[in-house]
Amino acid sequence: MPARRPYAAVRELERWLQRTAACVTPHKVVISRGGREPSLSHALPHTAKFASDPAPLGGSGLLLSVAHHYRVVRAGERGPWRVQTAGYYYGFDDADGREILAYHWHPVDVPDVPFPHIHVGPGVVRRESLSLGGLSLRHNAVRADVGRAHLPTRRIAFEDVVRLAIEQLGVEPLHAGWDAVLRETRSSFSRNRTWI
Amino acid sequence: MGPGDGACLFGFASLRRAESRGTLGSAIYSEVIHVGIEAGENGANLATKTVSEDMGLRELNAEEGRALLEEHARRYLNLSAEEFLRRWDAHEFENPDRPEVLRVAMTIPFARS
Fold it and tell me: B66 and B35, same structural domain?
């Protein structure tokens, strides 16, 4: 959402992130130092993530890891301030801490892989299957090529990840209004969010 | 569970007990928040209102940011934050997009901003 001051633009981001996360976890999101100030052109992006990461999700045994990179930029010399998404990491772990899948977009951190993608982690293999094979939990039983692959995706909204958790991965929402919240924030995403 | 069920919800009582508030600079925060407490017939609106009362996110200071990076580097790579940053800056990670590396890398702005 465009704003007259950088602080106000970041408030919109804060509101969006915390409302979306609060559909599935009570854990608070924190931001990096200076995260409400304008971004300098060559500086690292600001970051938001759970204070305690990953955050356990009720009813599923899953944990959610979130890191959202953003920049506070101005449209033109006198234009409104906006928050621009500069990268993300949204991942699900199982109760043993094994990553199941993770949505990545990190054009700055790892420029060799500039496109948004998903990783399939060792957690897609059930721990019982490892036990049957006499393998430890540290063993990665995913096909090596798939395990290394960056499977292309479109840019993923955090709301889509939370909705996936609730609708398809068995996570219990924390309040009855989760669907309305995700619809509202997702709609705002489509209208106002910008990407580098 | 639907809006008419009149409640929520997973672990609400314990969440409420666990809530703690504090201030850091101008940011008001709590480590956990409670939402949808009395989600009745208009659950969405109530949930929205409850959450919006506490929207300011806590901004970590330099010391807290370094501690966060240290914790991540040790947990995922068994490295100190200092060693992680040295290897990251020197491009010594063979596959920097590995989840355990990237999870730590995404935390760098907390220590360097």
Answer: no
